[in-house]
Structures are given as C-alpha cells and as structure tokens.
Amino acid sequence: MDWCFMSALWYLLPVYVAFHFLCFIFADADLTLLRASLIGHRPETTLRGLVVWVTGASSGIGEELAYQLAKCGSRLILSARREQELMRVKRICLENSDLKDEDILILPLDLLERTSHEEKTQTAIQYFGRIDVLINNGGRSQRSLCLETSVDVYEALMELNFLGTVSMTKQVLPHMTQRGSGSVVTVSSVVGLAGAPLATGYSASKHALQGFFNSLRTELTDYPKILISTVCPGPVQSQIVNNAFTEELSKPVATVGNQEHKMPTSRCVRLMLVGIANGVKEMWIAQQPFLLFYYAWQYAPTFAWTITDLLGRKRVQNFKAGLDADSAYFTKPKTS
C-alpha cells in the first residue's frame, strides 16, 4: 500500500510542477495571490458592508479602488487633496452601485499635513462608527537622475510617501487594536523590493514602507485578526508618471509616454481586492516579464543584478535622449 502511494506521488509530482510552471508563465500575480483569485474568498462577499478608507482616491489606483469597492457594497471614505475630483469619483460610484449618498464620505486630506490626521480619523470614525480597512494609496513617483536631483525632492518623497503613510497608520491602528480586527493595506511598488534608476528617492521611500510594515506585522502577533498587507505593483496604467517629482520640486515631467503596455488599472485593483479578502500579507502584481523580475530578485539576486544593470542602462539612455523611460522599452522611437 505504501509503495503504491509513493508511486502515485512520483507520477503526480511532474504534473504538480508543470501546473505551477504554467501558472507562473501566464500569471500576472504571485502564486499565493493567483491561488486566492481562483479558489479563495470573493471580494463581493467578504468586503460587503465593510468601511474602507482609501487615500489618494481622486485618480489612478485609488479611483479604481473606489469604483470596485462600491460595486462590492463597501461603505467608503474617500480622501485626497482635490475635493472636486473626489466628488466626481463619488458621483460615479453612486451611479454604478447600490450605495446611497450617506454610504460615501468625502474627506479631503493632505498627507503632508500630519497635524490634521488625528482630526480626520476621528471624523471618519464618528461618521461610520468604525474603520474596517485603511488603504494607504496616496503618494508620488519620481523621474530624475540622482546627480541632478535636489535634496529637497528626496525630503518631499520621504515626507509624503513614507511619513504621511506612517502617520495615517498610527492614527487608525489604535482604533483597530481596540476592536481587535481590521486591515491596513499599503500600496508599495516593485521598487520597494528592488532598485530602479530614475527613482532613487521613490524607491527609498517604498523600501522604507516595506521595512516599516514588515516590522509592524511582527509587533501585532497578539492581534491575529489585524491584517498588515503590502501591495507591490509593477507598471500600471495611471497618472502617477504625470505627477512624478523631477530634479526640482516645481518642475513637471517633460515626457509622458503611451501607457498601453502597462497592466490595466482595473486588473491590478481586482487582484488587490482578492488579496485583501483572503488576508494576503504581501501581493506581487505585474504582467510578464516584470513578474519574473520579482522572483529573480527574491531567489536569484546575482542574476537579477545583471538584468537590472542591462535594463537600467537602457532606461537611463532613453531618459537622457528625451524619451519616455517606460514605454521606450516596448516601442521603437521614431526617427526622422
């Protein structure tokens, strides 16, 4: 009997390996998240009725989060600096879901104004009575070379992306520990796991978030019902490049290329909600070959450095030539 069992395992092993290999080749998320999307809890069931606070909700990933959460039946707190844009997002949420006007609170917020975060948090709690999920999505990217970048830009990136997020988390977390449950979900990046040229400050801020939340997670072992989750997207279609910092605080990005080669925002957000619904602690979300890049950095860093150097050199060359640093990987620039 034991021999038959071992023989069966021997024959099933290649099938198991082949299945996971095929999943990886065609996947746009890590295997844990992919498995959850196939056989895990559905966001429409798990997130219905929960109070979800989304920062950076006026555009990009945050805006799409609002739309999909509304369809799931979540009650929403939408925050960003631009109140008119938040009102627009709320209107679309109401038009495309069963939510009522009172189910969505517009709460303008600036991550840099940390002294206001306590008051904003109390307003949110008083309005709904609780906060079930905080999604730290607000922040800005960077497109500039280190040698040309002002230290003021690095300071601004750390103040906004790191300290602003830490401040919001510290305001909401005591409420969750008192209740004994909740989720803090933070949008990091692939550059929170690996370095990338033209984003030294942005990458540093995301590395800082990874370290902070990995450490925080271990501090909360006495609260097993509190999820600390980080999301590491690769290139996603959004306005993050348009609003990126450059070498000077007030200088806009010169060239924003075509976004079509990047992952659709709707797909990225769907995977995020699957991860939240299934308690995934870290989510890798990217189309190939970017997902392979995640795995290389995790399991074969020496090989990953070689690939990074090659791609990084091309990225810097494109940037210096006045091309979009991202889209020039996939499209040949027109020459006269």
TrEMBL record:
Molecular function terms from GO: oxidoreductase activity
Signal peptide: none
Pfam family, one: adh_short
Residues passing through the membrane, by range: 6-27
Sorted UniProt keywords: Membrane, Oxidoreductase, Transmembrane, Transmembrane helix
Entry annotated with the keyword Oxidoreductase: yes
Family: Belongs to the short-chain dehydrogenases/reductases (SDR) family.
Name this protein carries in UniProt: (Atlantic silverside) hypothetical protein
Organism of provenance: Menidia menidia (Atlantic silverside)
